[in-house]
Amino acid sequence: RAKPKKAEDETVRRRSMRLQRVELSGILMPEMPAQLGAEEHPQVPAGPLPMVPEEQTENTELTEDLLTTWMRISEVLLVTITDVLMMFSRYQDSLNSMVLSEENVKKVVKYRVCSMAIHPSESIIFVAAGDRSGQIGLWNVDCESEGGAHVFTPHNDPVNCMHFSPWNPAHLLSLSNDTLRCGDVTRAVFDEVCRSEESFSSFDFLEDNASTAIVGHWDGDVAVVDRRTPGTSSELSADIGFKRTRTVHVHPVHKQYFVAAGAVDVCVYDVRYLKSKGNEAVSSLKGHTKSVASAYFSPVTGNRVVTVCADDKLRHNNNTGRWLSRFRAIWDPKQEDCFVVGSMARPRQIEVFQDTGKLLHSFYNTDCLGSVCSINVVHPTKNILVGGNSSGRLHVF
Question: Which residues form the signal peptide (predicted)?
Answer without folding.
Answer: none
